[in-house]
Amino acid sequence: MEKIKKRITSILLFLSLCIFLFGTGYRLGEWRTKEKFKYTPVANNSPQQQQSLDFSLFWETWNTLKQKYIDKSKLDEKKMYYGAIKGMVASLEDPYTFFLTPEENKESKLDLQGKFYGIGAYLGLKNFRIVVIAPLENSPAKKAGLKAGDIILKVNGESTEGWTLPKAVKKIRGPKGTKVTLTIQRGEEQKDITIIRDEIKVPSVEAEIKEYEGKKYAYVKIIQFGDNTNREWDKAVEKVKKAWEKREIKGLVLDLRNNPGGYLLSAVYIAEEFLPKNTLIVKQKYVNRPEKSYTSQREGRLIGIPTVILVNNGSASASEILAGALQDYKVATVVGEKTFGKGSVQEKIDLSEGAGIHVTVAKWILPDGRWLNGKGIEPDKKVELELEEGNTLTEENDNQLKAALEELFKK
User: Which of 12, 105, 234, 350 could link 100 by a cystine bridge, Cβ 3.0 to 4.6 Å?
Assistant: First the structure.
């Protein structure tokens, strides 16, 4: 009897131990599963091949920083999180594909609305260097002496090497009345330029009826292709069309110098004014989907008006599409300098949390088959700007405008 009791007791102890081990193993497995889902940054709707990627090194690095980095005030988790995403996007080595934090995304949208606080200069990337595409007229940048083509080496003493455009813009912008010092390279010369920031209001289109040597002409300058461009362009067209119908002008000078681009559809909308309906303006070629053609949807209101287009190395992106398409159809003569040469297409996508991303998705092809990326548009008449150091560009010393008018009055 005693042996039976001992045997039953042993069995019960064994079963209790099994239950304990099973429960412990279950809880451990449950905890590991929760930790795995907690720390694996892969969305449930991600592709299967991404779900199998081992993120342990990422989290090992993350946890090491959290545990051992000496300055705990620098461990901003949100900033680290955005920084990781920026690094992932930057690994593509495409200067036009970049991630924007919610703040940067908001600022990017304000640009095309034509209002912001800063120095008033369009920036671009050339060979991964931050360059000034153009300072705005009457802007703090212009008044301080910043010029198109200046390479920005430093901002307030901080090197710009490896910077994206959004980062450069963020560093240079700031509250009204504050100062920013840019170290620029102009040719072989390096120097510091200190600029006082101000509110910058950017009109899209300027239109005037002007006179040169007794002959009148319409002068229209498109500063960028933004939110207000089409509406402002329509007003300019009415002014030009009315003057042409009354025989008050000899033709039109369309100034796209230092125009950094913007919305493609605005460039297409303006190109339509000079072309018959159903005319090809530009194609977008993709890698994994059919190409898209943009054609004129209406009969142009300015067809038949002699037109000369002014361009320079600050004319980029959508402005090159407009100039190139009209050059291809020989409805306008292009005068000035070779353009910037940006022929890739970026899709601007809003992400969660207010963030955004600009992704290169296609390339632009002009009607004659040209891809202008890195090449730019060669003008029909090449004229380099001849401006003495220290002088401001005016109608009197603008030799490119004078060359354009000479071409216009030949027509």
Answer: 105
- Percent of the chain scoring above 70 in pLDDT: 85
- Whether residue 350 is found in the same domain as residue 396: yes
- CB 191, CB 158: distance < 8 Å: no
Q: What is the DSSP letter of 225?
A: B
Task: Identify the CATH number of the domain in which residue 323 sits.
Answer: 3.90.226.10
207 is written with which tokens? Answer: 């239109």
Contacts 24+ apart (CB under 8 A), 277-282: 279/329, 280/367, 281/321, 281/325, 281/367, 282/321, 282/325, 282/364, 282/365, 282/366, 282/367
Using the predicted structure, report yes or no on whether residue 98 has a pLDDT greater than 80: yes
Structural domain span for residue 132: 115-201
Q: Which residues are catalytic?
A: 317, 328, 342
Q: What angle do CA 269, 216, 245 make, to 5 degrees?
A: 55
Q: Quick check: 26 pLDDT over 50?
A: no
Q: CB–CB of 218/205 below 8 Å? A: no
